[in-house]
Structures are given as C-alpha cells and as structure tokens.
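A further point concerns the way the authors explain their paired sequence and structure data. Nothing conveys this as quickly as seeing an actual entry. An entry of this sort, consisting of the sequence and the corresponding backbone structure tokens, reads as follows:
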Amino acid sequence: MSEYVIEQPPVPTIPVEGTGATFPVRRVYCIGRNYAAHAVEMGHDPDREDPFFFQKNPNNLDSSGEFPYPDHSQDVHHEIELAVVLKSGGTNIKVEDALSHVWGYGVSLDMTRRDLQGEMKKAGRPWEIGKAFERSAPINALVPADKIGHPSEGRVELLVNDELRQEGDLNQMIWKVPEMISYLSDYFELAAGDVILAGTPSGVAAVKKGDTMVGKIEGVGELKVKVV
C-alpha cells in the first residue's frame, strides 16, 4: 500500500549533456537586476546593493525546446541567464567554499509576463504571476563543472530570429556566483538539486508566437527555443 494519499507527482529534472542521466530539481532561485545595464533599463540604480531573489517552481524548468506563449499577457519578455546547479548545500556557506557545492552549469531563460509583473510591482504584491508560470524557464542540457570548470567570464548573448537582442559578459555580474550562493545560504538552507538563475544582461524585449530564440553563453552552451 502506498504511503501517499494521491499519486506522487513526478520529480522535475534537467537532462545532462552527452548522457542519459538527469539532474533532479529541488528549488529554483533567481537573482534580480544582477547586471548594471539591465538595472538601468528597468529604471533602477546600477550601484551595488544587497542582492534580492525571487523563486520559480521546479517544474517551470523545461528542456523541450518550445515555449508556449502564455495566457493573460501581451508582453512576454526573454531574459537569458546562466543556470548554476548545486550538488550539496547548507547554511552560512563561506564565499571561498561556495563553488565546492556546484555540480554544473547550463543556459536558461527567465521568461517574464512583463505586463503582469508590472501590475504586481505597482500594487506592492509578489511577482509569481509574472515569473513562475508554466514552462517559464527554458533550459538546455547541463554540463558538469568537472568538464568546464567554473566560468567567471565569457560572452552572453540572445538572438531572436537571428537578430541580436541581448549581449554581455559573465564578468559583468554585480554579484558573482560564489557570493550569490553564500548570500542565499544565510537566509535559506541550500541543498543538492537547487538551481540558481544568475541574472540577465540588458536588452530584454518582447517575443511573439513563431519567434526563435537562441541563447549562448561562452564556455557553457547554447539554448534554442521556439515560441509556439
């Protein structure tokens, strides 16, 4: 007899490049305004301030290569991000120890219903309706840090229908990956299976059905997604 009163929901997973294995996802943390130029384009001061995070749901991550245009929005934006996935965690992790908890990296998109997010901002309400909707985080197959190391610099770009929309470099992140992990661990108990989306450079803009998005992070990989 099952110990569960309903059928157990499937565990969200991300494929691992070149293998049949998958990475099981526990939580998804997203850092906001982590590139100065993006902070400016969103109407905020680019000076370094304490980082802030919001969450997506584990099953928002999607590796199908398709992004279904969501309902209740006419202004859905792309945000290309480095995905950092953890093999271990804890609390009060020191910056100098943080990378020892990283399993690997990927290329992801934080798709955003910008109009709904804007309404929530004006009302002082949470952002989930604009950020944590179904399949709102397309992601490519992960690559282990054992293979590529821990990238701290490298070109980040997003093209829509072969037109360059976003560009930047990992070295432009205001809060670096070890700092993000350390800061998060002061407020949450991190664990294996956690995913951190590390922020987006400037150039965020709307997509429409039929668009093809291609995101690239030097040394990490490429993500191709069709808006359907």
